Amino acid sequence: MNTHHLALQLLALQGILGAFDTLYHHELTEALPGRRTARLELSIHAVRALIYGALFVGLSSWAFHGIWAIVLLVVFAVETGLTLWDFVVEDKTRLLPATERITHTVLAINGGAIITLLALTAPAWMAQPTALSWQPQGVLGAFLALCGVGVAISGVRDAFAARALGRETTLSAHFSDTEKAVLVTGATGFIGQKLVRALLGDGHRVTVLTRDPRKAAWLFDGHVECISSMDDVPLSRRFDIVFNLAGARILGWRWTPLRRTVLRRSRIDFTRRLVTWIGKARHKPALMLSASAIGYYGIQPRGDDTPLDEDQGPQQMFMSDLCREWEAAAGGAWVFGVRVANMRFGLVLGGQGALPMMLLPIKLGLGGPIGGGRQWMSWIHVDDVIRAMAHVCLTGEGGPYNVTAPGSVTQAQFARVAAQVHGRPAIFPTPGYPMRLALGEQADLLLEGQRVAPVRLLKEGFSFAHPELQGALASLAGRSRSGA
Description:
Elements: H1 3-29, H2 39-61, E1 62-65, H3 67-93, H4 98-126, E2 131-134, H5 138-167, E3 181-185, H6 190-201, E4 205-209, H7 213-219, E5 225-227, E6 241-244, H8 257-280, E7 287-293, H9 318-331, E8 339-345, E9 347-349, H10 355-363, E10 376-377, E11 379-381, H11 382-395, E12 399-403, E13 409-410, H12 411-421, H13 433-439, H14 444-447, H15 455-459, H16 469-476
Parallel strand pairs: 3-4, 3-6, 4-5, 6-7, 7-8, 8-12, 9-11
Antiparallel strand pairs: 1-2, 10-13
C-alpha cells in the first residue's frame, strides 16, 4: 500500500471521528452554538471546517502535482495552526469533558499521521508538472467527498452560530424588589443558563445544584456557588426561591425502556429528593418554580383547534404521564407551606434547544412542512420564558402555568415564517413515517401537537415581548420584523 492511499484512509477516519466530535460533543452535550462564551471557538471551527471540506473533496479524486503539492502542505500547516489556537481558546472558555479531550487527542495524532504521509508523497508530486491530476479513488473517494460536503455544512452552521452570538445581549428581568437567596437546579441547561444570568443581573445570590460543579463555576465565571448534592447543604441554609429545571434531555435518543427510566429518574426522583430536603430544612422557601411541559396535555386530535388552558387534564401516554408525575413530585412541597408553580413550557425558541436544528434545513433552502404540517406548535421565545418566571416570582402565585406565546401556529406556518425571516423557500415537504421509524413514540412531539394558550399569564397581566412568531424569529435572527 502506497503512502498516498494510506493517507486517504486515515483522512476517512478523521472524517468519522470529526463527525462524532461535532454531533455528540459540540451539538449535543456541550451545545456550543448557543454558548455566548463559545463565539471565538465557533469562528475557528467554521474556518477549519471549510478548509477541511476543501481538503476532503480535493484529495478524494485529485493528485496535487508541482506547485499544488506545496499549496496542499501549506493549507495543512494553516489547519494545524488553527487547531492549536482552538486548543488554547477551549482551555480558556470551557471545561472539556473527558470524552471530548480523548477524541481531540486521537484527532490530533491522526491528523499528524496524515500530514506526515502526505509530506512523504510530496517530493514525487512536486517533481511532476504543475496540475491537479484526476485520480479517482472509487468508494473511498466517494466517501471522502461526502465527508467534505458534510464538514463544509458544519462550517457554515458554526459561522451562522458565531454571528448570532455576536448579536446576543444579556436579558434584563426583575424577580424581586429585594435581594433573594436562590437555588437553581438544571442551571447549565439552555433555559438554566439564561435564568442564572438574569438572576445575577437582578442582584440575587445564586446557588447552583449540578452534577459538575467545576463546569458550572467555569460557565458562570465564578459568580455562583456550586454544589453537587443537597446533602452538602446544611439544613439551616436559607433559600427564598427554588427554580427546579433539572432533567435529562427529552429530544434525542429513542425512548427505550432504559431511556424512559433515565427521564423519570432525572425529573421525578430528583424532584422528590429536592422536596425531601425542603421538608427537613429549617427555613422553607416561599416559592418553588418547577419545570414541566405542555406534553402534560398529550396529543390534540387533528382538526381540533380549541386552545387548551391550564384546566385541561392529561392523557394516558408516556410524555403526559411523565409531566403529571413530575408535577406531583414538585407538589409535595405544598405540605411544607411552599407555593409551587408548575411551568408548562412549550417549544422554547433560542440559540440552544431544538430551534437551531429545526432551522438548519430551512437555512439550507430545504425547509417545508413535516408530516403534513397541520399539527399545532405552541412555542415561546426564551426571553419570555425568563420574564414569565420573573412574573410568577413577583406575584408569588402557585399552580400550573402554560408558558407559551399567545400566537400558536401550525408546523407548516412555522416553516413558512421561518423561511421568510431567513430569506429562503419552504417548498420541500418531509414525510412523517421516517421519523416514526427512527424515533418511535418520540416522533409525536414533532408530528402531533397541541394548541396551548397562556391563559393564567394573560389574566395576570403578563405582557409578552414576542407574542407572534414572525417577531420572535426575527429577533433571534438579529433582524427587524420587516427582515431588514
